[in-house]
Structures are given as C-alpha cells and as structure tokens.
C-alpha cells in the first residue's frame, strides 16, 4: 500500500518507493508475469475458462482494494492534521485488514465491517474520531 511507504521508517521507505518504480518501468506485456505459473504447460478450454474466472475475481478484488485505498488517501490529510503519522498508520492497518478479508473470500460488506471493527479497536484520540468515522463511511460506501 502506498501509504505504508509514507509511514515507514528508514530503509523500508526506500524499498517501497523502489518497488513502485520497478513496477512502473516494466515493458508492456510483462506487468502480470509474476502471476503466471512457469511450470504449467499447455491449456485446454477448461483451463481458459478457469483462468478467465480467476482473472475476473482478481480484477474485482483489485477494484475493491483500490476503492479502500482511495478512502485512505481521502482520510489521510485529516488524520495527519488531527493525530499525526502514528494514527495514520492505524487507519492504514485497518484498511489492510479489510483488504485481507476480501482476499480471504469475505463478502464486501463483511470486509467493511472488519475495517469498522478495527477502527473501533484502535483507541484513536477524540480529535481523530470524526475523520475515522468518515473513513469508515467511505469504505462502507465503496464496498456496498
């Protein structure tokens, strides 16, 4: 996640920025190379159907993840102003929990509930509470 780079310390920040740069400089056609199984040979029509279904599921998951990240980016300035990087890291961790729930097969509303429960359990200061509530509302709207 992009905001993890902003909240990380030292070398991890450089590593995250470098990873983004490498992904952006791949030649066309190689962007998805890491997702292919190099040991699998040949295909039949059922393989094509299975890969199309998997690709569709991956696209949906990526879209839902992007919507959660958009909510993090929208909330970030308010969280920083009200509570600093420590609280932004907590919000980002809750966003990751929602993304992990989606990747684990949870329905989008259940993932939104996981984000809300995480935010509730973070013990954010009162100054951050309104921004955190807006973040949770954004995630709920994004995933329903």
UniProtKB/TrEMBL annotation:
<feature type="compositionally biased region" description="Basic and acidic residues">
    <location>
        <begin position="41"/>
        <end position="51"/>
    </location>
</feature>
<keyword id="KW-0732">Signal</keyword>
<protein>
    <submittedName>
        <fullName>Uncharacterized protein LOC113208188</fullName>
    </submittedName>
</protein>
<feature type="region of interest" description="Disordered">
    <location>
        <begin position="41"/>
        <end position="61"/>
    </location>
</feature>
<feature type="signal peptide">
    <location>
        <begin position="1"/>
        <end position="32"/>
    </location>
</feature>
């Amino acid at each position: 996640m992009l905001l993890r780079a902003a909240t990380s310390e030292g070398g991890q920040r450089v590593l995250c920025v470098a990873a983004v740069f490498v992904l952006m400089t791949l030649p066309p056609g190689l962007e998805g190379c890491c997702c292919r199984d190099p040991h699998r040979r040949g295909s039949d029509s059922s393989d094509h159907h299975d890969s199309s279904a998997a690709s569709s599921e991956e696209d949906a998951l990526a879209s839902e993840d992007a919507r959660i990240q958009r909510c993090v980016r929208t909330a970030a300035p308010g969280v920083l102003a009200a509570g600093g990087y420590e609280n932004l890291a907590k919000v980002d961790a809750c966003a990751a929990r929602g993304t992990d729930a989606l990747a684990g097969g949870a329905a989008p509303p259940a993932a939104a509930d996981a984000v809300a429960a995480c935010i509730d359990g973070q013990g954010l200061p009162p100054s951050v509470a309104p921004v955190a509530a807006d973040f949770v509302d954004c995630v709920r709207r994004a995933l329903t």
